[in-house]
Amino acid sequence: MRYALSAMLMLTAALSAPAAPPDLKGKTLAETFTELLPAIGKPDTAAQQRWQEICFALGAPGNEKPRVEACTLMAAKLDDKTPKPARLWLLAQLQRIGNEESVDAVAAVLDDPDHEVREAAVRALANNASPKATTKLTDRLAKLTGPSLDKGGTKFKVGLLNALGHRGDAAAVGLIAKNLNMDSGIAEVAAAQALGRIPGDEALKALTAARSIARGAVRAAVADSLITHGDRLLKAGKTDDAAAIYKELNTKDEAKPVRLAALRGQIQSSGDKAGEMILGTLTGTDASASAIAVGQIENLSAGALKTLAASLDKLPVPSRVSVITAIAARGDKSQLPIALAAAKDADASVKRAGVLALGRLGDASAVELLLDLMSSKDAVAGVATESLAALPAEGVNEKLLSVLEAEKTPTRTVALIGILERRKAAIAVPALLKAAAGTDAGVRTAAFSGLKSLATPEHLPGMIAAFLKTEKGKDRDPAELAIVAVAVQNANAEKRAEPVLAAIKDTAKDRAADLFPLLGRIGGPEVRKVIREALVSTDPATHDAAIIAICNWPDVSANEDLLALAEKSKVDAEKLRSLQALIRVNTVLIERTPEERLAALAVMKKAMELASRDDERKAILEGLGNVRHIDTLHFVVPYLDQPALAQAACKGIVELAHSKMLREPNKAEFAKVLDRVIATTKDKGLAERAKGYKNAP
Amino acid sequence: MSTTQSTRRDFLAASAAAAASVGLPGLAFSQNRPAANERITMATIGTGGQGSGDMGGFMSHPEVQMVAVCDVVPEHRERARKSVNSRYKNEDCKAYSDFRDVLARDDIDAVLIGTPDHWHAIITIEACKAGKDVYCEKPECLTVREGRAMVDAVRRYGRVFSGGSQRVLGDYGDWPRSIWGGSLGTVKEVFVDCGGPSGDCNLPEEKLPAGMTPEEWEMWLGPAPKRPFHSSLIKGGFRPYRDYSGGGMTDWGAHRFGAAMFATGHHLMGPTDITPPDGKGVKHLTYTFADGMKMYHGGTGDIRYVGTEGELDRAHPKPAKPAKASDMPTYKGRGGIFGDFLACVKSREKCFRDIEIAHRACTVCHLGNIAYWLKRPLKYDPIKEEIVGDPEAARWLDRPKREPWSLA
Fold first, then answer.
1. Residue A235: what pLDDT?
2. ∠ at Cα A410 (A404, A413), nearest 5°?
3. How do strand B310-312 and strand B303-307 relate by DSSP bridges?
4. Of A413, A423, A421, A416, nearest to A452 (Cα)?
5. Rounded CA gap, A441 and A436, in Å?
6. What pLDDT is attached to residue A540?
7. Are B335 and B64 in contact (CB under 8 A)?
8. Quick one: angle between helices B248-263 and B355-374, nearest 10?
9. Chain B hits for A421, Cβ within 8 Å
């Protein structure tokens, strides 16, 4: 807190509209306080919360008179007749809203025999806006002198010095400075730090004088405070004064961090000459100093940057790389020539830095060069791709699109599509639709990947048409996923499948079946009707496609159909596939209500009965780890006794234990079961997790 | 500093140039670790749940060598030491209970701070003074003044700092990029959902756990007011209490307000008005920025953006209008926010969650808390970083610290 600032703000507050006083329910402040005081500091916090709310409200502008009254009431109860917890709590309130009226009473506590109470009083005064608080703190500090201070006394002294530093009141400088020259160790450090927090010449002079005699930790604190003063002066426009401090501290007598901080200050206070200073540092041998110098390039003046850029070629390669990178980080497009020149440099590291810089500083004119580099066998090809993806300028997407439309080579086409996708270039969608319907499977896959990111539901007809050009086992799956991703953008879930249903109507019967698996991934009531019809179709292709569709179903709404298939189908492959689909949708980790978890568990119990292979049984047991219900645990635990399934049961149980919400209320039961897991599992990592959950607080 | 250590650190600084801005491409995912003197040596200070998780994240980067762990809770400390040694298959990791002993080591380049919130500022500032780069978990500070003091220390000592809010880019995918690319036009309103403010701590006294000394508990409290031990505080349960944290407002708020401010380009600004809900016309705590944008604390469990040309939230994850390319800042290097920090340690660039950005995000959270606590609107000058016209509210921008700690 700064006293001067507080005074200014108080003045402003006085001009503000009065705030509504707190509702005391017909009682006076004194009556309310007297009623609440006996319960303050007690385990039941209702009374102190009530009084605290009153205090907070009284701190509002316009409530000055009742605030003074409340603080006076609290101040009167700070003596040792009040229990300690209540005294500490009242001091905390006075720390927040106390002013002149409470200074004397709080200062009296500075002599309390209880260190904890004294310390709380120090903080209350540290935060008190009255100048009298500084006087009281310095008076108390003056009494704490000489080498006879015990450990507690030194600590208290540090607290007083810190409080004076917190207040930032120049009136305390003289006494603090005296403490800088006495004792040794933490009190002197605290004095040096306090002087750093107090603005003004007097504190600066005291620190400057102390520097010549200070050693060790005290010297480091003095130096840090001097740099703080330097920074304050620099911010205030007193550049020469700041520069003098930095110069004084950038010597070998100081610790390395101090030297580096001073060097930073020197560069910042050098204006246009900072370029030369950075060049000098970068051609030296101190790598840490070079790192500091590079860090200052971001804020250099135009003149200093010009100097630096003009001599770039004279720097050693590592420094050139650093400078180019730092210049790029400024984002100043006028420095594009530096990036372009570097991108053509013979040295590989400089070239790499230049190409990366183009990604930040370049415009559409850099596209050709980056494309050439991307297509070359040059080591920077990958970096060029990164820069093309990042290039922020206007016209770059249009330029890339024109190149894509003219491109004949599949490899480059794929790369260009990837770049446009990463650039979120929605203008590329028509070109991507065309590419998705092309003849090259690699290009089609890249195009669908781009469409997945960039297309919107109105593009679905085009995507579906292109989908029919894809080949099963090659590029069909990614195309399906892209279409589903775009379809689910439609907020109306029931309308999502409409474009696919429309396409089925318009597509020749022998190709329509190709669209069924896609329908299954989207789901919805309308789709289920269509799929159910197809499931009973006598056309084998349609039936098979419907099986894939229902097994692709995205959620539990097809449980009934899948269970029927798993139970009644005469084809083993269909049974297996539907069982696997049931496991997938019922054990995926999603938010479920307790009822939904129980429903999923019931389906998995049925699936367990229907499973004919251990693979599915294991998948059920592992997957049930995501169905977080205590009944699930009861179902899984017995499988620990079946050697073939015990490891999967262990995984499921540990996953259930992962849920704190489930584990906490059933801690004892989980502890026993986790012990069994630890004894059973062959997976060391799983055993560690089990131990962690068992011992978790 | 020994000659060997000096050589190693200087080598690292020099090799930084060669790796500048690209984070040693391919390195993070390479099976071949760099030579020992090319690695970034790190220490973890605060090895509870979040700290140890972050520590694992950093150790997965082959260029990192974790050499020390520090925690006042013996169980956390020992678990972390074992974890590091198990990872490297040696016994080299040293364990400390006082962070100052870690900072005194000349062979450590950077520290990961995963302590409770009330320690973040002091350790960050002391680390900067000791010449260490800093990765600090969010919320990066407990008060507005702490945040500014951290910015000053990072800049003064030329250090690289990253806050630990991986969710700004990590959780919200393409939203910031989309908004920076103009997909919503001008964003007029943002709804940010996260927990509420912290309050007083009245936990009863418990016995210290076996192995933990009174001095270690004293160190856990550090700059916070003295109080008796309670086990939940050392097990991550400190967040509801004002002396150690700003509650849900600063916990998830540091992520989500930070994300909203970044996405809308307000990440280097602050609000001018903070109005708490009044049970009448003001439903949500409302921040008003100088350009008129309103940011509300409340909504539907996440972030919702309302722009002149569209909306964006979990229900509308893709805006109707396509985004143009933008110069939105993003991570340097590879491997998310950890990779960003490591790349910047080498290149000396500012991290994605640079201290100024972290401070501005936390400031919003703190101002919201003050308005909630005091139940009155605040006016704020985001340039001077002062609450205007309400001196008692302004006191909450800072808090005196318990001896011997201070913000110097």
1. 96
2. 25
3. antiparallel
4. A421
5. 9
6. 87
7. no
8. 130
9. none
The pLDDT of residue A393 is 81
| CATH class of domain segment(s) A589-697 | mainly alpha
Q: Which residues of A touch B399 (CB under 8 A)?
A: 127
When computed from its CA atoms, the radius of gyration of chain A, rounded to whole angstroms, is 37
Q: How far is CA B145 from CA A292, B28, B100, B151, B343, in A?
A: 25, 36, 22, 10, 29
> How large is the ipTM?
0.91
CA distance A11 to chain B (A): 8
> Residue B205: closest CA among chain A residues belongs to which residue?
A43
CA end-to-end span of chain A: 40
User: A155 to chain B: which residues are within 8 Å by CB?
Assistant: 403-404
Tell me the C-alpha distance between A196 and B252, whole Å.
Answer: 34
CA distance A188 to chain B (A): 12
Residues of chain A with CATH 1.25.40: 1-132, 589-697
Structure tokens at A97: 């809203």
**What is the nearest CA distance from B345 to chain A, expressed in angstroms?**
10
User: pLDDT-derived band of residue A677, with 50, 70 and 90 as boundaries?
Assistant: very high
Percent of chain A with pLDDT over 90: 74
* DSSP labels, A601-667: HHHHHHHHHH--SHHHHHHHHHHGGGS--HHHHHHHGGGGGSTTTHHHHHHHHHHHHH-HHHHGGGH
Minimal Cβ distance to A165: which of B155, B178, B406: B406
Residues of A in contact with B355 (CB under 8 A): none
pLDDT digits (tens, 9 = 90+) for A88-107: 999 999 999 999 999 999 99
Q: How far apart are CA A488 and CA A452, in angstroms?
A: 11
Do the Cβ atoms of A13 and B390 come within 8 Å? Answer: yes
**Chain B residue with minimal CA distance to A489?**
B318
**Residue B114, SS3?**
coil
For B158, the closest of A45, A295, A425 (CB atoms) is A295
The number of residues making up chain A comes to 697
Confidence of residue A183 (pLDDT cuts 50, 70, 90): low
Q: Inter-chain contact A426–B322, Cβ cutoff 8 Å?
A: yes
Instruction: Find the helix packing angle between A525-535 and A498-506, rounded to 10°.
Output: 40
Count of beta carbons in the 10 Å neighbourhood of residue B341: 32
Q: Residue B107 and residue B132: Cα distance in Å, rounded?
A: 10
Q: What is the DSSP string of B382-404?
A: TTTTEEES-HHHHGGG--PPPTT
At which residue do the structure tokens 């569209």 appear? Answer: B310
Q: Which residues have CB under 8 Å from A275's CB, separation 6+?
A: A300, A303, A304, A305, A306, A307, A308, A311
Residue B197, preceding bond cis, omega within 30 degrees?
no
For residue A15, what pLDDT band results from cuts at 50, 70 and 90? very low
Question: What is the nearest CA distance from A630 to chain B, expressed in angstroms?
Answer: 26
Averaged pLDDT, B113-141: 97
Task: Give the pLDDT confidence of A430-470 residue by residue, as tens digits.
Answer: 999 999 999 999 999 999 999 998 999 999 999 999 999 99
Q: What is the pLDDT of residue B316?
A: 79
CA distances from A388 to A355, A368, B329, B334, B394 (A): 9, 10, 15, 17, 48
CA B126 to each of CA A479, B113, B122: distance values in angstroms, whole numbers, following the listed order: 55, 12, 6
Long-range contacts of A562-566 (CB under 8 A, 24+ apart): A563/A603, A563/A606, A563/A607, A566/A607, A566/A610
Q: Could you write out the DSSP letters of every residue in B244-270? A: T--THHHHHHHHHHHHHHHHTT-TT--
Does the domain made of A1-132 have the CATH classification 1.10.287?
no
Write out chain A residues lying below 8 Å of B388, CB-based.
9, 12
Shortest CB distance from A231 goes to which of B10, B152, B349? B152
